[in-house]
Amino acid sequence: MSDQDTKIPRTEPIQSATFTNPINAEIRRAAATGIYDIRGGGAKRKVPHFDDLLFLGASVSRYPLEGYREKCETKVTLGTRFAKKPIELDIPVTIAGMSFGALSGPAKEALGRGASAAGTSTTTGDGGMTPEERGHSSKLVYQYLPSRYGMNPDDLRKADAIEIVVGQGAKPGGGGMLLGQKISDRVAHMRTLPKGIDQRSACRHPDWTGPDDLEIKILELREITDWQVPIYIKVGGTRPYYDTALAVKAGADVVVLDGMQGGTAATQDVFIEHVGLPTLACIRPAVQALQDLGVHREVQLVVSGGIRSGADVAKAMALGADAVAIGTAALIALGDNDPKWESEYQKLGTTTGAYDDWHEGMDPAGITTQDPELMKRVDPVEAGRRLRNYLKVMTLEAQTIARACGHNHLHNLEPEDLCALTMEAAAMARVPLAGTDWYPGKAGF
Amino acid sequence: MQTYDLEANGLRGLNSTLQEQNGGTNKTAWEIVNAKGSHAIAVGLNSPIEVTVKGSTGYYCAGMNQQATVKVEGSVGPGVAENMMSGTVIVEGDASQYAGATGHGGLLVIKGNASSRCGISMKGIDIVVHGNIGHMCAFMAQAGNLVVLGDAGDALGDSCYEARFFVRGSVKSLGADCIEKEMRPEHIAILKDLLARAGADAKPEEFKRYGSARQLYNFDVDNAQAY
Fold this sequence. Notes:
The complex is a heterodimer. By secondary structure, chain A is α/β, with parallel strands linked by helices. Chain A contains 16 helices and 16 strands. In chain A, helix 10 (279-292) packs parallel to helix 16. The radius of gyration of chain A is 23 Å and the shape is globular. The model of chain A has no long low-confidence stretch (mean pLDDT 94). Chain B is an alpha/beta fold. In chain B, 11% of the residues lie in helices and 23% in strands. An eleven-stranded mixed sheet of chain B has the order 1-2-3-4-5-6-7-8-9-11-10. The interface between A and B is large, with 34 and 43 residues.
C-alpha cells in the first residue's frame, strides 16, 4: 500500500455562491482603484421578467384569428388627452431617448432612419437635438432633461412630442457621469462645457421641486408650443402607482415607465443593479393608477426596460401598456456588441455581449463613441435598415401572438391571455400561476 | 402701445398673440394688465417687442425668452426667465427661487432681491441682482455672469464650471470648488458693461470675483469629501 493510497481524500473545490468570481473581481477592482465601477448598459442580474409569463392562446374557449390572413392592427396614437397633434405610430414600439454624445452621430442617424422606415418615433437625449437626428426622424420626441444641455425653444417647437424626463429605470433618483474623454469639441459646444471634463448630469430639474411645480412647468411648455404636441412624463420604475397618478395629476398626455432593466449611458454599477423595480413589477400598479383615475387609454402608458422581442411587446401590452420603447435592443440591432469585433472587445478586457464601458468612448462598433475613426464603422443606411428589420420582426411576432389569442388589435391583448411560471411573476404581473386560477395577493391571500 | 387684459382674455390668447409678433410687426409695445400672479406670462417670445407686465407674476414669467424685452412692474414667482436664450427681462420687485435657471443668453435684471438658487445651471445668461440673493445660487453654473450688488447666501457657485460671479457685499459661504479669484482688467470691463446695462449705480472696483477652482472637473476619489 503506497502513501498516496492512505491519504485522506480531498473534497472537491467549491466556489462560494456569495463570493462569486465576478464579485471577487469587483472587490479587487475597487481595492485597486478606490472608486466604484461606472458603466453603461442596463441591469445584468436576473430578475423576474417577461420570460416568466406565457400566453395561453386559443383552443375551444377562445377563437383564434388566421395567421397571415386576418388583420391584426398595430397602430397606436399617443397624446390624445390635451395635444392638438397627437403622435400616430404604425407600430407600438418606439425608440427610447439616447443622447448624441453618448451615441455617435451616425448611430443617431441610423436610429432615425430605421425608426422612420418602420413608422415609429425616435427620442433625443441629454445632448439636445441635432440636425441629423431631426432630419432623419419622421417623428421625434424631444427630451426635456434636468441638465437642459442644448435645450432651446426653437428645437422644442420642432419636436413632435416633448418628454419630461424625471427618472430613468437604470438610475431612478440618480444623475449621470460621462467621463471627459468622450466630451469632444462638438459635444462640449452643445453642452456649454469645457472640452475634456467629466460631464455631470443632474438628477433633478433645477427649476421645479415637486408635482405641483411640474404641473405649472407643463403649462409653460404647452404655452410655448401652442398646445400642439403631447407632453410625456418619463419616470424610473420605483413607486409606479403614485408616480403615474401624480404624472396624470400634473397633466401628462403620456406616462413613460422605465423599469430597472432599462439602459443608461453611464452610471454607477451599484445603482444599475440595486435601485428600482423590475419592469414586470411596474406595469400593473401603473395601469391600476390609470384605471383608478379613469384615464386608462386616455393617458397612454409606454413601458420600457429590457424589451427584446415581440413576445415582450405583446406581454407588456397585455398587462395594459399602450406601447413600448427600446434602447439597448436598438443598439444591438444597429450592431453594438457584434461578434465581428470580438478581437477588439478582448483588447478592451471584455467580450462580445458583455461590453458596457460606453462612457469611455472606445466602443469598437462605433456606436457609443465620439472617436471619429470608430464612428466610421457605422453605416447609417445599413444600420438603419437593420433596425427597421428588427422593429418589423418584433411587430410580426406580437401580431402572431395576438392572433393566436383571438385579437384583431395588439391593444386588445389582456391579462386574461397570460399565466405565470413562477409565484414571483404571478404576484408582480397579477396573472394566475400556470395551471391555477390564483396569484399571490388575490382574494387577500 | 397695445394693452392686453389677462383676466378678461386669458393666458392662451396672451401668449399666442405675443408669439405671433415676429417679423415686421408694428405692434412693438405691449402692456399686460390684471396679471394677478398668473403663471407662464409672456413665455416663448421670439421677436424684439417690449412687454410690460403691470403687477406681480407667478411661475416662469418670460420663460425661454428670445429677443424680447419683458419688464415686470412687480415681483415674480419661481423660475422667471428660465432657460432664456436672448433679450432682456427686468423685474422691478423681488424674484422667487431659480430666477434665470438654465439660461443660455440674454440679460436678467432683478431690481430687488432674489431668493435661493438664482442662476442655477446657468449656461450663458447674464444676471444682475440689485439686492441680495439666497442660498445655493449658481449651483452647477456653466457659463455667463451673475452680478450681486448686495449679499450672497450659503454655498454660492457650488460645483460650478466656467460661470463668473461678482458680489459687492458679503458671501455667507462658497460652495464646493468655488473660490475667490483675481479681478483683472477684463473682468472690470465685463462688470462695468453689465452694471451699465442693468442701470445699477455701483463701481466695478467694489466687487469681488468668484469662480471655479477647477479641482473637481475630473473625478478623483481623493476629492470625494468635497461633494
